[in-house]
């Protein structure tokens, strides 16, 4: 029963990393949707210009989440944390 707090402490960071990964993926989808919608308008129209500006803005800003610019937070971060924790646990068990 005393492992429950440890489990609860790991749920938050995992949920955060998954959410950051999903937001980044949605930003990529939004950019491609802007370019697909541009094809439906004349290149001289106001709608085309707005979609073009928005698509360029999304592409140039590059939505990403970092931990104080040390590393990028994404889905693979979860696997790295799990692998590091498993390695530490195995070393701890071996030296006990």
TrEMBL record:
For this protein, the record's InterPro entries field holds: 7TM_chemorcpt (IPR013604)
State whether keyword Ion transport applies.
no
Q: What protein is this chain from?
A: Gustatory receptor
Pfam families linked: 7tm_7
Task: Report the locations given in the UniProt record.
Answer: Cell membrane
The GO annotation for biological process reads: sensory perception of taste
Record keywords, A-Z: Cell membrane, Membrane, Signal, Transmembrane, Transmembrane helix
Q: What membrane topology does the UniProt entry give?
A: Multi-pass membrane protein
Leader sequence residues: 1-27
Which terms in the GO cellular component ontology are assigned? plasma membrane
């Amino acid at each position: 029963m005393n492992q429950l707090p440890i489990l609860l402490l790991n749920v938050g960071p995992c949920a955060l990393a998954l959410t950051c990964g999903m937001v980044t993926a949605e930003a990529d989808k939004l950019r491609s949707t802007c370019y697909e919608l541009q094809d439906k308008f004349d290149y001289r129209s106001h709608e085309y210009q707005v979609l073009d500006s928005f698509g360029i803005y999304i592409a140039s800003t590059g939505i990403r989440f970092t931990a104080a610019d040390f590393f990028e937070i994404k889905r693979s971060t979860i696997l790295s944390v799990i692998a590091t924790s498993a390695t530490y646990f195995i070393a701890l068990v071996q030296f006990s």
